[in-house]
Amino acid sequence: MSRSYDGWRRLSDVSGRPPGAVPFIHRLTASPAFQDLFREGMGLVEEAAAYLDGPGRAESRALSRTAGLAYATESMRLTTRLMQVASWLLLQRAVNEGELTPSQALTERHRVKLARQDLACAPEIFEQLPETLRRLSQRSLRIQERVIYLDQSLLCARAPEVVSHGSVVAAQFERLRAAFSR
User: Is 108:99 a contact under the CB 8 Å cutoff?
Assistant: First the structure.
């Protein structure tokens, strides 16, 4: 039994995706894996807040002037980073629960400023900070990277793609431009 093959016309539609293909990223954000990420992110927010409001205050008082300044800077960056992550997670949960449409979330996305951050101080000064703050900062950087990756994947999947003359290469360039044009 032989099958007829229609060539490249059948392999992709205007978006560059195979016909009928559903971007995996949409399913991922509604999956148990996303729920785990949500719980991890929100748990980290709570853990950091409890530390910074409690034991962290006492630990910061015992630091040298340089380490104390680094502590203040890193704790502010940690808080900012976690609030960005929490905002993004809550926005995605609203989409998953039907409170927002994906297009509304894309419109609201401009309010969530996800920006890659490194540690606020040099490694030798970072090592002088309390271990709990160091662990919280490192965990927040890892979860931030995961959220940025998901955000860029969602943006690429939801953004209208301009394909000039049906070129698959042009579609890929448009996806790259959309991912890195922030």
Answer: no
